[in-house]
Amino acid sequence: MIGSAIGALLLSAILVSGPGAVRAQDATPTPTATEAAEPAATEDTISEADTEGEFTTGNIVAVADGPLNLRDSASIDGEVVTQLATGTRLTIVSGPTAADDYDWYEVEGATGDRGWVAGEFLIDAADVSFLAGDLIQVADGPLNVRDDSDIAGEVVAQLETGDTATILSGPIANGDYDWYEVEFDADTSGWVAADFIAAASANEDEDGYSAGEVIEVIDGPLNVRAEAGTSREVITQLETGDTATVISGPDTADDLNWYEVEIDSETSGWIASDFVARVDSFDTGQEISIGDGVRVAVDGANFRSDAGLDAEIIDNFDIDALLLVQDGPVEADGYTWYQVFSYYYGEGWIAGELVTVDPDGFPGE
User: Fold this and answer.
1) Sign of CA dihedral 33, 39, 45, 51
2) CATH classification at residue 152
3) Strand-strand pairing, 234-238 and 222-225
4) Is residue 149 part of a domain?
5) What is the chain's pLDDT, residue by residue, as a tens digit (365 residues)?
6) DSSP state, 25?
């Protein structure tokens, strides 16, 4: 009897482990996990995470075990605004506030959702390999994409080494792996084992732009969006040759690197870096003196009320506008600023990196 049972088990194993069953990573056979019904998200049905102390305003945290209720007040009686998946990145806005046996924090998500969550189910984002919204790439393919966070999940696709995807949620520990839910095109998502992925190399954005740098659109029209992502609201468009000043970034979304930019004193938004370049076609080492005539080298360069990126934008110069240098240089925000005068634009300040000296000077009255 025992011998027959063992023989049946061996035969079953041989039948299941057919040719090619382990071609893709994560396919090492493991016992199928027992599936339990997933309860609706409530603060007291989720295993508590070790927060290792209180968080403070500005801390970046992540949901340790979702779905986690985001409520409109610091109480289990607060209305549920939405539910947050494991790995969701959040910023602490305020708190903690003690109520109903929990320490509550006001948080804000990347999409702008704001509300209160129980701090027992948050962890420091630095303790998580990947967070929702992160871009990853396959480090060792082919990699199975499954319909569940389980080695027994159906394979819905395979990704090759170097393929990229965006983290939707996770990690979920199951069997020998930590699993992440990923999206790799507009219509396809699934679960992959964390052992075979790595952080993507920022879409090979080798230049990278820093706050204060001026960038120029090289392939317009370019959408300027309210947030980072191709599905976000378009607030305006920039044409080829238009310029803007980098405020922050990069953020990765939809396989693109996004930078927040200032277009004028009233307009800012997010653009994809694939379609812009650094404004560096002029001589930043040139000597500029008071009394020199200079010409604007970048169309739309900002004309400001004072030296610095925080100064009010008075106007935007046309390319080749002729200016008289009246004062400077003043170092501020990574730029060398000069006070200039124009019969058309009046008096104000411009970054010296955006002008070139005109050998013919500035004409007198």
Assistant:
1) positive
2) 2.30.30.40
3) antiparallel
4) yes
5) 444 444 443 334 333 333 333 334 444 333 332 222 233 444 433 333 344 447 888 888 888 877 889 999 999 899 998 888 888 888 888 888 999 888 999 988 766 778 999 988 888 877 777 878 778 888 777 889 999 988 898 999 888 877 888 888 888 888 888 898 988 776 778 999 888 888 765 444 445 777 777 888 877 788 999 998 888 899 999 987 788 888 887 888 877 888 899 888 788 999 988 888 777 544 455 789 999 999 988 767 789 999 988 888 888 888 888 999 999 999 887 778 999 998 888 999 998 888 889 888 888 64
6) B
Task: Note if the bond before 96 is cis, omega within 30 degrees.
Answer: yes
8 in any annotated domain: no
The residue behind tokens 């230049």 is 207
Are the C-beta atoms of 167 and 181 separated by less than 8 Å? yes
Task: Report in angstroms the alpha-carbon separations of 75 from 33, 93, 248.
Answer: 35, 16, 35
Same structural domain, 183 and 252: no
Phi, psi angle pair for 69, to nearest 5° = -70, 130
CA distance 260 to 213: 11
Specify whether 249 is located in the same domain as 300.
Answer: no
Count structural domains, the chain.
Answer: 4
CA dist 93 and 272 (Å) reads 28
Domain span at residue 102 reads 43-127
Rg over alpha carbons for the chain, rounded to the nearest Å, is: 28
| CA gap 101, 47 in Å, rounded | 15
Do the beta carbons of residue 337 and residue 330 sit within 8 Å? Answer: yes
